[in-house]
Amino acid sequence: xxxxxxxxxxxxxxxAMDSENQPLEEIFVTARYRSENLSxxxxxxxxxxxxxxxxxxxxxxNRVASLTPNLRFSDDQxxxxxxxxxxxxxxxxxTGQPPVSLQIDGVSATNNLLTTQDLFDLERxxxxxxxxxxxxxxxxIGGAILVTTRAPTSEPEYTLRLTAAEGSDYSLxxxxxxxxxNDTLRYRASLxxxxxxxxxxxxxxxxxxxxxxxSVSLRGRVLYQPLxxxxxxxxxxxxxxxxGSGYFMPxxxxxxxxxxxxxxxxxxxPTFEIxxxxxxxxxxxxxxxxxxxxxxxxxxxxxxxxxxxxVESENDQDLDQTLVDAINIEVDDESDTFAQEFRLSSNAESxxxxxxxxxxxxQDRFRSLATTFFGTPVPAxxxxxxxxxxxxxxxxxxxxxxxxxxxLAFRYDRETPTDLTQGAERTFSExxxxxxxxxxxxxxxxxxxTVGKGFRAGGxxxxxxxxxxxxxxxxESLISYEAGYKFATESGRLRGALxxxxxxxxxxxxxxxxxxxxxxxxxxxxxxxxxxxxELAAALTDSLSANLGFGFIDSEIEEYRDIPGVLVPASxxxxxxxxxxxTWSLQLGVAHTLGLSNGLELVSRVNAERRGRTFWTLDxxxxxxxYSLVDVSLALxxxxxxxxxxxxxLLDEEYIEWFFGARFIGLxxxxxxxxxxxxxxxxxxxxx
Length: 688
Known about the structure:
Layout: H1 2-18, E1 28-29, E2 36-37, E3 44-48, H2 50-55, H3 61-66, E4 71-75, E5 82-86, E6 89-90, E7 100-104, E8 107-108, E9 122-129, H4 133-136, E10 143-149, E11 157-165, E12 169-180, E13 182-196, E14 201-202, E15 208-209, E16 213-227, E17 230-245, E18 249-250, E19 257-258, E20 266-267, E21 280-296, E22 300-318, E23 327-346, E24 352-373, E25 376-377, E26 381-399, E27 404-419, E28 424-425, E29 428-442, E30 445-456, E31 459-460, E32 472-473, E33 476-488, E34 494-513, E35 519-539, E36 544-559, E37 584-595, E38 601-611, E39 614-615, E40 623-624, E41 627-637, E42 641-648, E43 656-660, H5 662-665, E44 671-674, E45 679-687
């Protein structure tokens, strides 16, 4: 139906666009390790260039998700914890793994706590949907998010950005770049600092602000290029985020007797109000050093990427979320990771193009969850985990004719988690093939078919004494079938992409926890997910542009068996939809540029998003109704500076960011994570 409507609309739209002169800027991506026009790549990809990143104030992955079809990101529980869902494939918390490969300058984020890190001084972001393990490694079962930061420059360059917003929210971002002595050695240094008191309050703690945050992020890079064919980039990054934690709200009245004792004993608590009896706090610190070496031969390039990372996190919160001092939890998480990738890729000028490589990964991670019941500590759930992964991968593209391209890819993973606490070890391995056919109907139209397998390893749960959850969980795999169509009008003023997909899922992993402090992943034996995305970009006039994105999901849990630790029977789960992401979402962005005197421009922008119904739990009983979000900004800019007024969530929409049903986790009440309220602010930027 979408394709029919799009085809019917295109001729009239194309005629309107052809009457203008200024085309859309071409978009180039590096999704296959070579620069290609977005319209020529047989994958569903959303791309943000420097101007879009700046205009949309993208500073974390959550902002990327709000502008990308079928990508959902929610902050929950603590500063490092999030739930990311792409095409119904969801993130596993605790010591589980994310559903996408998040890479920054080619270096994979090696810990799920790093998906909430600040993003700054950016050049490009590419979101690839569908299995991407062949090129982007571990956990790319649902896709990949590729972040490219600004590179060191041959000429001195400096930027500064100051932001002030409601909630006493102040931030500073700055960068400096240029040569070091001569052009063979260049540097770039960047930072972002934020100090926020917050806007959400706990009225039962004297209106204390709970969503506070203090963060410092630093990154430095040195690029050494002694020869035209050799380059060495060394990058060091440090981040320290401290923030509020555990400001969930009870989503039901619960079963605990509530104070004050001077009144008659009563049960139940206020619902959908922040009322934890203690102020939660959390932090995530990480440091990372990486080296990327490229050596160009006449026929291709050899690349080596080496990284070392250290992550420390702590979370102290009221777990029952009610007025009663019933259940408190403290989580400590530490990890050290080494990763090495060797990659050999051919040049892009021949009819046969290929990439092959080897990946090595080693991580030591210790995680402890200490729980207190009514002031009495219980034995902590501890896990000392060693994780090793070895993988080989390859990708081959061949031009069968001038119009037809065949791509074959594979990845073989062998991952071994060893739980030293339980004295247990398991090995998970999987061959992940992928094949696609791309046909250039015309120079401006591409159709493609893709079949690919995705894989995410299993592991061990962080089980506390008294919990019924199993000590481990199995790996999951899926087969994704996708058909896509990309087009652009001859004038270049209208560009679009349509993709339809179907996923057969085996042993899909879901995260749950219980009142003992156990954080566990379980497996759902069989489920299916179908859906699609539509994206359009148009230069309506030389001064007015628009972007539209639409995504939808239709899913079913086809097979489920009763699982120890899950209190809801299989009969209530089998046949329900896969929970977590909205069943559909619609994004619309409109930007207008008005030329003024003295080279000034006035740029106004509106981004509106409508999210459809979201199921929170496996039995689909708890759900979030559809809601709308609107962000606006007005900027006055010159070649070297910009002043912007912005408002996020302009309509002050209240919705649930994330939700846990009490009947699944054994807590006194359902718990819900509140949305961020409207925030108005100003921003000043300088470039010199």
